[in-house]
Design brief:
Blueprint (H helix, E strand, L loop, with lengths): L2 H12 L4 E5 L3 H10 L4 E5 L2 H10 L4 E5 L7 H8 L10 E5 L5 H10 L3 E4 L4 H11 L16 H11 L6 E8 L1 H8 L1 H22 L5 E6 L2 E6 L4 H16 L5 H6 L1 E3 L5 E3 L2 E8 L8 H15 L9 H9 L1
Parallel strand pairs: 1-2, 1-3, 3-4, 4-5
Antiparallel strand pairs: 6-8, 6-11, 7-8, 9-10
C-alpha cells in the first residue's frame, strides 16, 4: 500500500457512523431496530428522562422516539429538547401507535417533528427514511475547490465496483508545491479552483451524466467516468490546462520552463501526471484497491521526484 492509499485509509478510519438514539420502551422492538440499523451506532433508552440525559451528554445524529413512553408523551419530550437547541440540528422521528389518529400525526408534524411513522411499519422503508434524513459522506466537499472529497469519492467508487463500465483517472499535479512556494498559498488555491473548473467543463461537454470529479489531496484529483473514451477526456483537460497555466507564470519563467525558488534553486513548471485504471484492470474489492493500483501505476510510469520546496511547505503538502 503506497503513501496516498495509506493516508486515505486513515481518513476512512476517522469517519464514524452516524449515531441514532432509539427511545423505545419495548425491549424486543428496541433490539430489532438496533439490528436492522446496524449501519449506524445505535443507543437504546426506554423512557423520555433517559433520552434527555443522553442528548445532553452527547447529541445523536437522529432521534427515533416511540409515542408510547412510560414517563411522558413523545411531544413533551420533543418540547423539552427545544431549550437544548437540538431540534434544528438533528432529525426527529416518531414511531406512532396503530390507533394514532390523523389529528395526532398532523399536530406532531406541525410542531416540527421530521417524520411520523405508524406501526406496523415496513423496516426497509424506515431504513430508507433514516438514510435520507442523516448526513451523507457525499455531502463532504473540499473547501477550496467545492469538489467532493475522499469520503464521497469512496462512496461513489465503491458503488461501481460490481459494474464493468467505469474508468478512474488519477491526476497528480506535479510541482504544484514548488509553485505555491514561489507565489504563495492564495495563488495555489486559485490554481486548484481553476483545475476544478476545467474538469467540470470537460465532463459537462464530453462526459456522462453520472461522472464525478473530486479531490484526494492538495495536488491530486480523481475523475470517475463511464465515458468509453476516457483518454479523450484527459486530452481535452491537458489542452485546457496548458492554456490556463500560461497565466500563472511570468514570460521569463515560461520561456525557461522553470521557476526559481526562494532559496535560489529551480523547479519545473506544474504539469498534470496521470494514471488510468478501469474495471478491466481488476477485479477490485474496495475503492482503496483502485486508488492503490492507480497511484502505483502513476509512480511506475512517472517516477516521483522530490519537489524542491522549503521544509515547511513540504510538511504542509505531506499532510494535505
Amino acid at each position: 500500500m503506497n503513501g496516498l492509499t495509506t493516508r486515505l485509509q486513515q481518513e476512512l478510519n476517522r469517519i464514524r457512523p452516524a449515531t441514532v438514539l432509539i427511545v423505545e420502551p419495548d425491549p424486543y422492538l428496541g433490539r430489532m431496530l438496533s439490528e436492522y440499523l446496524a449501519d449506524y451506532t445505535c443507543q437504546i433508552v426506554t423512557n423520555g428522562r433517559d433520552a434527555l440525559t443522553s442528548c445532553q451528554q452527547a447529541a445523536p445524529h437522529l432521534l427515533l422516539i416511540d409515542t408510547n413512553l412510560p414517563d411522558m408523551s413523545a411531544l413533551a419530550l420533543f418540547q423539552q429538547l427545544q431549550p437544548l437547541k437540538l431540534i434544528n440540528h438533528m432529525p426527529i422521528f416518531f414511531l406512532g401507535q396503530p390507533d394514532d389518529g390523523r389529528e395526532q400525526r398532523m399536530n406532531a408534524l406541525e410542531m416540527g417533528v421530521d417524520d411520523y411513522i405508524a406501526k406496523p411499519f415496513d423496516i426497509v422503508e424506515l431504513q430508507f427514511r433514516l438514510k435520507n434524513a442523516l448526513p451523507r459522506p457525499a455531502q463532504s466537499v473540499d473547501l477550496i475547490t467545492g469538489l467532493p472529497g475522499w469520503p464521497a469519492i469512496h462512496q461513489d467508487l465503491q458503488a461501481r465496483l460490481n459494474r464493468q463500465d467505469w474508468t478512474l483517472l488519477l491526476i497528480h499535479v506535479a510541482h504544484m508545491a514548488a509553485y505555491q512556494d514561489v507565489y504563495g498559498a492564495v495563488a495555489g488555491q486559485r490554481v486548484r479552483r481553476t483545475i476544478a473548473d476545467l474538469w467540470n467543463g470537460v465532463l459537462d461537454e464530453w462526459g456522462e451524466l453520472d461522472d464525478l470529479v473530486g479531490v484526494v489531496s492538495a495536488h491530486e484529483f480523481v475523475v470517475i467516468t463511464r465515458s468509453p473514451q476516457p483518454n479523450q477526456l484527459l486530452a481535452h483537460f491537458q489542452q485546457q490546462f496548458a492554456a490556463a497555466s500560461r497565466r500563472w507564470y511570468s514570460p521569463a519563467e515560461l520561456a525557461a520552463a522553470q521557476v526559481q525558488l526562494l532559496d535560489g534553486r529551480r523547479s519545473p513548471l506544474m504539469t498534470p501526471v496521470t494514471a488510468v485504471v478501469s474495471a478491466r484492470s481488476g477485479p477490485f474489492a474496495t475503492s482503496l484497491e483502485v486508488i492503490d493500483a492507480a497511484e502505483t501505476l502513476r509512480q511506475r510510469q512517472h517516477p516521483t521526484t522530490v519537489e524542491k520546496v522549503t521544509p515547511t511547505l513540504q510538511a504542509i503538502f505531506a499532510t494535505s
